[in-house]
Amino acid sequence: MCGIVGYTGKNEAYPIIIKGLKRLEYRGYDSAGIALMKNGINLLKCKGKVADLEHFIGEKDHSGSAGIGHTRWATHGEPNDVNAHPHRSMSGELVLIHNGIIENYDSIKKELQNRGYVFMSETDTEVLVNLIEEIKKNEVCSLSEAVRIALSEVIGAYAIVVMSDQEPGTLVVAKKSSPLVIGIGSEGDYYLASDATPIVEYTKNVVYLEDGEIAELIPGKDLKLFDIKKKAITPYIHALEMQLEQLEKGGYDHFMLKEIFEQPRSVHDSMRGRLNASAGIVHLGGMAEYEQKLLNANRIIIVACGTSWHAGLVGEYLIEDLARIPVEVEYASEFRYRNPILTEKDVVIAISQSGETADTLAALELAKSKGSTILGICNVVGSTISRTTDGGSYTHAGPEIGVASTKAFTSQVTVLSLLALSLGQKRGTIERSKFQRLLFGLNEIPSKIERALKTDDLVKVIAERFKDSSNFLYLGRGYCFPVALEGALKLKEISYIHAEGYPAAEMKHGPIALIDADMPVVVIATKGPSYEKVVSNIQEVKARKGVLIAIVSEGDTQVKEMADFTIEIPETDEIFSPLVASIPLQLLSYHIAVMRGCNVDQPRNLAKSVTVE
Ligand code: AGP
Looking at the whole model, is its pTM more than 0.85? Predict the structure, then answer.
């Protein structure tokens, strides 16, 4: 979590950094701060969002052509002005911003306290900046050398940027386990950030810093890159493909709403060049090299967190159903610590929108150490997971800025559908005519999502009726069970209403006790093999006077008679139902959250990219 931004060059740093911080605010918004170099270092920081920082700075001097900025998701120490980054060293010479956790900060802190250092904040970051100061003083060395020596004493995860008033204009950056991108400007200037979104409008030439690398950025000079042992590294310059318009709201009130409405296009983009229904071709280029491993795998293990885990669960159903390969879906945070059995015959697939989730990355690294093949399904191009894996496929959903994942989910499910179809075809586990029917079915999904989005007005009416409820239950069976989980997650994360997703039949084993006339129950009852079973579950809800909101296939009459509200969506083959049924649930959570006055794009306590475990 936490977003970091920096600039050094001929231009004023402040507008570049503030704009960059706004782009990275999805990574945390407990506090924000900025340090600017002019005649000495000007440090400005406060609790709250970037807008609060701008307000706090107001007419205060904010000039300087080098600077660093930070937006924080608190780990050590409560969100307040003192704990906000940047942190200054005790003498005032250095300032530092940090994304990550220094695990051995306590022992380093005690050591520094013995040498007379006094700490103002509760953060691990202030310990690191003082460690660098102490080394710089003792070794009488450059800033970059002091950073290098300090990092050899540090255990943990970090992306850091340091400035010294003794080396005006120089930024020293380093990375281990937290992301950092350097942009190379055309005027000898440098940009840096936790991801490429603050950089894209200035330059398309970027270097993704690798773990253990340190860089010295001096305007007008070549980028100097080296490792912790001082070995020089030649930077590899990537060309960014991201477009600036993708980062704007485009007339919508919130990024989340824009991203919900983008899904016909984002799902289409996930299939583009991979599916040719009339020719009977499905092909995932990034996985092709590992196709034999997948086809012959003992097991496929999917690791992920949150919404990506829900997509993974749909993936399990798809791959087992169509390709008959055993699949396990694991919470990355549990998997990495439970001593799982892994062999070279296992293929581990990580699913992650950001490609930076710390637990998912650690689960992959564990699998790699056991000799398993590791693949990724990521959205952010160039992200750490996409660079760590042996191979994989991007979802091509475009930047997702709203903290609540929407289009990333449907794109992940689309890629998993393509994977399952491709494996099933190669293994001969799908009948030819069914295969062809499914390809055409998948091809039609973007237009069916388009139609499902037309339920928006009706969903708004339903949201108005239930916006003050305290609890919701979401039920689904088969492919729609993960949709129930995802619908409940969406509601709780942005509207702060307690919601639970459950397999419809499991309701009788506990949650049925909760049902009364005040409890809205959302049931996904689309046409498919489980339809009649879901109808029975609906009767059980109605018998307990539960208030029923049903998602049904267009033209349904049976459920309509029983439900208090029905939302009709286009019928699909059962295996693609999550792609369409999730749409009204996203809209329902969105409208309820707006009606309750919640901050939809930046819900409390959350961050888009969870880079701490
Ligand atoms: C989704 O709405 C959540 N914000 C969250 O559960 C998210 O899906 C999870 O943190 C995983 O993130 P990733 O896909 O970037 O790895």
Answer: no
